[in-house]
Design a protein that fits this description.
The chain has about 160 residues and is of the alpha+beta class. It has one domain: Gcn5-related N-acetyltransferase (GNAT) (Aminopeptidase), CATH 3.40.630. Helix content is about 35%, strand content about 25%. It contains five helices and five strands, in the order E-H-H-E-E-E-H-E-H-H. Strands 1-2-3-4-5 form a five-stranded mixed beta sheet, sandwiched between helices. Helix 3 links the parallel strand 4 and strand 5. Helix 1 crosses helix 2. The chain starts with a strand and ends with a helix. The relative contact order is 0.13. The mean pLDDT is about 95.
Length: about 160
């Protein structure tokens, strides 16, 4: 299998949306998916995109993706990358696709003098955790993710 990793282009928007939906199904979060094709087009391919995507493909077509954006570390005084989504279709798992996508992001970090590559993984996703551990990734157990959405976000926005 010849694998090619490339930046996503506007024509890839439907496959990116499909990958997002497949990932949500795998993560048992399909009920949370609200993104539309227009959203993908705007987020990744609008006039000033704030997120980016790499597509992994073979002769048979796209098999995985990594969707990411730049972060910042004030302690390091440098930017980093935050990997929002990494997904490989089941038939292509175990063939090095995920590793190739992450290696591409690692090369970007090194080339751009970025401080780190970070992401989150669901605590029940043992195969993903084992894969990340095999790459030398460390768990940041002292940090707990917090999130504001919906009514709580709107309420805080009204605070003077």
């Amino acid at each position: 299998m010849t694998l090619v990793i490339r930046p996503a282009v506007a024509a890839d928007a439907p496959v990116v949306l499909a990958f997002i939906r497949e990932l949500a199904e795998y993560e048992r979060l399909s009920h949370d998916v609200k993104i539309t094709l227009a959203d993908v087009e705007r987020i990744l391919f609008g006039p000033a995109p704030k997120a980016f995507c790499d597509i992994a493909g073979t002769a048979d077509g796209p098999v995985g993706f990594a969707l990411w954006f730049y972060s910042v570390s004030t302690f390091e005084g440098r930017h980093g990358l935050y990997l929002e989504d990494l997904y490989v279709r089941p038939a292509a798992r175990g063939g090095g696709v995920g590793k190739a996508l992450l290696a591409g992001l690692a090369r970007r970090c090194v080339a751009e003098d970025l401080a780190r590559l970070e992401w989150s993984v669901l605590d029940w996703n043992a195969p993903a955790i084992a894969f990340y551990d095999s790459l030398g990734a460390s768990a940041k157990t002292e940090w707990i993710t917090r999130r504001l959405t919906g009514d709580a976000l709107a309420h805080l926005a009204l605070v003077a």
